[in-house]
Amino acid sequence: MTLNIIIIICVLLLLAYIFDLTATKTRIPSVILLLFLGWSVKLLSKQLNFYIPDLEVFLQIFGVLGLILIVLEGALEIEFDRSKFQLIKKTSLISFISLIALSICIAIVFQFFQSGNFRDGLINALPFCVISSAIAIPSVKHLSKYRNEFIIYESSLSDIIGVILFNFLMYNSIVDFLSVAEFTLQLAILAIISFVATIVLSVLMSKIEHRVKFAPIIILLILIYALSEILHLPALVFILVFGLFIGNINRLQQFRYIEKLKPDIIDKEVTKFYELIKETGFIIRAIFFLIFGFIIETSELFNVSTFLLSSIIVALVFIFRIAILKLFKIKLFPLVFISPRGLLTILLFLIIPSEMQIGIVNKSVVLQVIVISTIVMMIGIMLTKRDVSNLVDRDNNASDDFSSTEEIKEN
Prior knowledge:
By secondary structure, the protein is mainly α. The chain is built from 18 helices and no strands. Helix 3 (about 55-75) runs parallel beside helix 10 (about 235-245).
């Protein structure tokens, strides 16, 4: 029995690898195929009377681990220099404005369908407002360098700002000066924790000579994240700061205290660390979406009674997407399509206390919004030509307003 389960897991993960390998050619996001695969395994197991224990308990665990690794991987990929400041500024504003405006609008829709506490409406709306970096980042590898960076920044910041706003609303029944001041203090505390923890972990990376070097660093990252969440601090900020710092350590050598951390050694180790994070992130992400696909009930996926609400939410997502890109004078195609909902939407939905949940917002709505928004992204990606040369990359990006003059000259 044990060997059979091991064989099944290995086969499923190998199929997940094939999906990921062929995604750039087929333009079908691997998450769609993973969900379908997990759902198919469930149907097959029922037909064969093959017992599989309740896997829903593992969904949140793998979701949190996947989120940490995905944001860390995205941060390690980012080359942080002055030429990126404009991009960071724009993506930060886009993420923040989108989250605020869209959550208010969706909360109003919830009020229309089911009257209740507006704060509860905002809490239930926020999971639908966060772009899934778990789906968006792996799906845009074929795009030009700057569009890729735009999605990495935007989706990562959307995750972080979304979690911050969600935690603020969850733990503050009244929004006033005192609650905002207290929350600002929490952010300041986390900034100090992030700085100290990043320095310590960087020293460990350069000092550890044992054959097992990266495992304790990853464990400490997860531990600090978990402790920060328990203290209601926006823990993803720490993950992003750590990734940006060690991923760009070679660009910070002009600072005296950085020299003491032996940046040359850290820079060499970061390459190995990044490869480990990328491989581990793939496995965790694959397991998460396979489990989610497995727990999908056919009746939930094709629930006609929730389809109207799901369609309204998706329509609002893309209406606001068009509006915000127009506002910042960013070329719509293909970025307008890349606004999927996914891992974090599920995680935030699962942790909403029962007393704050709205009856009309159920698993069917969450599932349908994720599937529809991902299919829209898939169609957009399929309609996008692959950048095959530096010349094409330059020409495509020269017209994009989020690319700086320095970036264009570099090409």
